[in-house]
Amino acid sequence: MSKVGKKFEAAKKLVDKPSYTLADAMPLVKKAAFTKFDETVEVAMRLGVDPKHADQMVRGTVVLPHGLGKTKRVVVIASGDKVREGREAGADESGGDDIVQKIQGGWLEFDAVVATPDMMKSVGRLGKVLGPRGMMPNPKTGTVTVDVAKAVKEVKAGKVEFRVDKTGIIHCAVGKVSFEANKLAENAGALISSVIKAKPASSKGKYIKSIVISSTMGPGLAIDLVSVEAA
After folding, report:
1. Which residues partner with 76 through β-bridges?
2. Which of 27, 163, 179, 201 has the least C-beta neighbours within 10 A?
């Protein structure tokens, strides 16, 4: 068995219950993280939806109370006064077609893009670049808006997007192993609440089937569904 395999097996032995509350799980997730780097803590939620049907697509955003441990670099693509508004709100870059051309030329030193509706025709040309990276502005996630200042501040404050994949699972980071356990629990709780609120009206039967929390390399811990659904 490799060194990593041995460490993983040792970490797995720490998981001694079939399920945990968020408050109990997070100290264990921290303890079971065995690599030298600051692992990301991720929540995986299996939902009782069929994402092939448009009316069962679950997506949305949540501002994590304690952020993700790094301030996101935000670009604003706007026109007129909105360019200045974006800059004043703290955008790392704010402009119009000049930004679109810069991105088309291969510049990708940012984590999120906010655009005004009137610029979406130009932004549309960036679909092949931004789409696969999950950075295409979208009205549903609040990144296509006339209120660019609010959008920039929310992204900077730790707003993250969640989206169910084709297998019915949502994967979303809620912080780093170096975070305090209670902050990780609060971030995870905020995400889970937002996913519960985003339940489609057409979803029948059990909506949340399972929730597992793990660090990048560590073992998964199942979360007691009654404890989060009651919260």
Report:
1. 94, 114
2. 201
Q: What are phi and psi of 171, to 5 degrees?
A: -110, 130
DSSP characters over the chain? --HHHHHHHHHHTT--SS-B-HHHHHHHHHHH--SSS-PEEEEEEEES--TTSGGG--EEEEE-TT--SSPPPEEEE--THHHHHHHHTT-SEEESHHHHHHHHTT----SEEEE-GGGHHHHGGGHHHHTTTT----GGGT-B-S-HHHHHHHHHTTEEEEE--TTSEEEEEEEETTS-HHHHHHHHHHHHHHHHHT--TT--S-SEEEEEEEESSSPPEEB-HHHHH--
Residues in the chain: 231
225, 224, 215: which is closest to 7 by C-alpha?
Answer: 215
Count the neighbouring beta carbons within 10 Å of the beta carbon of residue 93. Answer: 19
65-122 pLDDT, tens digit per residue, is 998 877 789 999 999 999 999 999 999 999 999 999 999 999 999 989 999 999 999 9
